[in-house]
């Protein structure tokens, strides 16, 4: 299957959306579409929407590829990513989607990635123990600390502990195994520059949850031998599709209109149903994107509205055995999007002669992909018969290109959805509430 096949949004006859709704949404977004096109035409990073330029910015791409080449060495075994939220979730999502659950046992020639996100004593102790007992030479490890603001409590805490373990083991040689990714001019940037440490820049206007295609998301993946140009290629093609003024040719526009229309009808839960378990972390990435971009106390006019759509991540077929009763028989407050790549290539087959025949009928000789296809189509038919709205993202295959397409689609869809709902997709003022209280508590400890 061609890795560069476009992913498809399928919604006709299942999303309970009509031509009038689509036409109305198109009219509401026409001016904003004009702005988005101007952002791309400028090629600059002057607007909050500027993340859509990352995949076509040849200067940035060449610079990042050069930096990856400089830092990647034949002895590199481990890439430690210290970050949280937008500085971590996108990288983790892409890594786990393409390397799977058994990465530690497979992909022998590729560096392994270790994600240190929240402040968890067991996790931190495991990382310290790993550095002390598994890392033999400094060239085997690289620590990439990522913080857009440069002042994230969890990230700074974890970094200082990880660095202390490296320093104890390797002395001053530890400093060469550090790369910091942050905003130019942040406190972190200035301190790292004073200490003559290595730095990568996130464009100031590119928010953390929109930064997966920047150095924040792709530098560590490049070190781990991913084809990061594939992510950019897929995203770049999706940007073109999602700037189209013709609604039916613009999947981000259509998906945003579907979500906004159902929200106005009281459907406030967005169920993202991934039928490939390796995409679970992609769901976590999207949950942050949706929650931080759409959840708002006030609208663009400053009026108190308390708008929000709650994202849910479901995994097929696992969650059919735990959640299907709720989804099919419970409250009708959910809009579902199924995401599925059938992954037919090299799918294992059930033997023709079963060791325990008679337990399940009609599985002999069928591939795992065939069986999942049957389950997937079965749940779609059940949704249709129960009158439940849904759309589909058909990915054909999970690859750098299709993941780049999917993530770019969802980021642009989120921008359109926020505009339809009349809120700012790029700030997150309420997140500061817990950060402020945390700082006050730490002063008293």
Description:
The chain is α/β, with parallel strands linked by helices and 445 residues long. Helix content is 45%, strand content 14%. The chain contains 14 helices and 12 strands. It has helices at residues 19-42, 58-71, 89-99, 121-134, 153-170, 187-194, 215-223, 228-241, 251-264, 280-294, 324-329, 368-385, 400-421, 431-444; strands at 8-10, 78-82, 112-116, 141-146, 178-183, 198-202, 269-274, 296-298, 304-307, 310-315, 334-340, 390-394. The protein has a 5-stranded mixed beta sheet, with helices on both faces. Strands 3-2-4-5-6 form a 5-stranded parallel beta sheet, sandwiched between helices. A two-stranded antiparallel ribbon has the order 8-9. Helix 10 runs parallel beside helix 13 (400-421). It is globular.
Short description:
The chain is α/β, with parallel strands linked by helices and 445 residues long.
């Amino acid at each position: 299957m061609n890795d560069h096949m476009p992913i498809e949004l399928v919604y006709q006859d299942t999303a309970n959306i009509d031509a009038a709704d689509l036409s109305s949404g198109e009219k509401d977004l026409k001016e904003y579409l004009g702005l988005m096109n101007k952002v791309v035409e400028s090629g600059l990073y002057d607007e909050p929407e500027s993340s859509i330029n990352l995949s076509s910015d040849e200067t940035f791409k060449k610079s990042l590829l050069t930096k990856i080449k400089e830092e990647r060495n034949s002895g590199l075994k481990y890439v430690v990513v210290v970050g949280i939220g937008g500085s971590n979730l996108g990288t983790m999502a892409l890594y786990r989607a393409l390397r799977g659950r058994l990465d530690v046992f497979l992909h022998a020639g590729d560096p392994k990635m270790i994600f240190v996100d929240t402040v968890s004593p067991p996790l931190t102790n495991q990382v310290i123990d790993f550095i002390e007992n598994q890392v033999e030479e400094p060239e085997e490890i690289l620590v990439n600390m990522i913080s857009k603001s440069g002042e994230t409590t969890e990230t700074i805490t974890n970094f200082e502990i990880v660095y202390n373990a490296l320093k104890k083991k390797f002395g001053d040689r530890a400093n060469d195994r550090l790369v910091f990714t942050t905003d130019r001019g942040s406190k972190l940037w200035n301190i790292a520059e004073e200490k003559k440490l290595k730095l990568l820049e996130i464009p100031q206007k590119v928010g953390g949850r929109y930064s997966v295609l920047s150095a924040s998301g792709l530098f560590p993946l490049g070190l781990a031998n991913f084809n990061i140009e594939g992510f950019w290629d897929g995203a770049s093609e999706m940007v073109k599709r999602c700037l189209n003024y013709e609604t039916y040719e613009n999947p981000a526009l259509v998906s945003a209109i579907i979500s906004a229309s159902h929200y106005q009808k009281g459907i406030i839960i967005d169920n993202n149903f991934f039928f490939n378990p390796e995409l679970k972390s992609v769901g976590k990435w999207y949950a942050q994107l949706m929650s931080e971009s759409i959840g708002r106390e006030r609208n663009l006019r400053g009026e108190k509205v308390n708008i929000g759509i709650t994202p849910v991540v479901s995994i097929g077929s696992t969650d059919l055995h735990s959640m299907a009763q709720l989804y099919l028989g419970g409250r009708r407050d959910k809009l579902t999007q199924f995401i599925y790549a059938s992954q037919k290539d090299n799918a294992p087959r059930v033997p023709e002669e079963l060791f325990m025949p008679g337990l399940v009928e009609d599985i002999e000789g069928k591939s795992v992909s065939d069986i999942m296809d049957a389950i997937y189509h079965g749940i779609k038919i059940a949704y249709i018969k129960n009158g439940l709205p849904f759309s589909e993202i058909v990915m054909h295959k999970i690859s750098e290109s299709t993941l780049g397409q999917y993530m770019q689609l969802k980021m642009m869809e989120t921008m359109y959805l926020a505009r339809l709902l009349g809120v700012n997709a790029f700030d997150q003022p309420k997140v500061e509430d817990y950060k402020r209280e945390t700082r006050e508590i730490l002063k008293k400890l």
